[in-house]
C-alpha cells in the first residue's frame, strides 16, 4: 500500500497505465521529456504488502524501460501463476530431516557408514 506522499504524487503527476492479475497498478509520469536520453518515470503501487515478487512477468520489461508498452500476458499451461515467496528465516521455512527446528527425529543409522581414516 502506498504512503501518503506516493499517493499524492501519483494523483498529481501520475498517468495510469494498467493493472496486472495480482492487483498491482502501474503508472508513469504525465510529463513527456523532450531530450532523447530521458525516460518518463515509471512506478508500481502494490496491492497489499510491498513485495516485488508479486509483479507479473509481463510488466518487468516495461518497468526497466526495455519496451514502450507492457507485454501481453502469456497464457501457457506450463507457466506458474505467481512465484513462491522466499520463506527463509520464517516459521514456514523448510528444514532437512533431523534438524532440531524441523521438530522431527533423525533416522537411525543403518550401520553401513565407515569413517574415513587417513
TrEMBL record:
Domain of life of the source: Bacteria
GO BP annotation list: response to oxidative stress
A Pfam family per the record: NDUFA12
GO cellular component: respiratory chain complex I
Chain intervals for the UniProt region annotation (Disordered): 89-118
InterPro entries named among the record's database cross-references: NDUFA12
Name by which UniProt lists this protein: NADH:ubiquinone oxidoreductase subunit NDUFA12
Native species: Phaeovibrio sulfidiphilus
Amino acid at each position: 500500500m502506498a504512503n501518503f506522499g506516493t499517493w499524492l504524487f501519483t494523483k498529481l503527476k501520475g498517468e495510469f497505465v494498467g493493472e496486472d492479475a495480482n492487483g498491482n497498478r502501474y503508472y508513469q509520469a504525465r510529463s513527456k521529456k523532450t531530450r532523447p536520453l530521458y525516460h518518463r518515470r515509471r512506478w508500481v503501487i502494490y496491492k497489499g504488502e510491498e513485495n516485488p515478487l508479486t509483479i507479473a512477468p509481463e510488466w518487468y520489461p516495461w518497468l526497466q524501460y526495455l519496451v514502450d508498452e507492457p507485454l501481453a500476458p502469456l497464457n501457457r499451461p506450463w507457466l506458474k501463476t505467481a512465484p513462491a515467496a522466499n520463506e527463509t528465516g520464517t516459521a514456514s521455512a523448510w528444514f532437512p530431516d533431523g534438524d532440531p527446528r524441523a521438530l522431527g527425529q533423525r533416522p537411525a543409522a543403518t550401520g553401513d557408514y565407515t569413517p574415513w581414516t587417513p
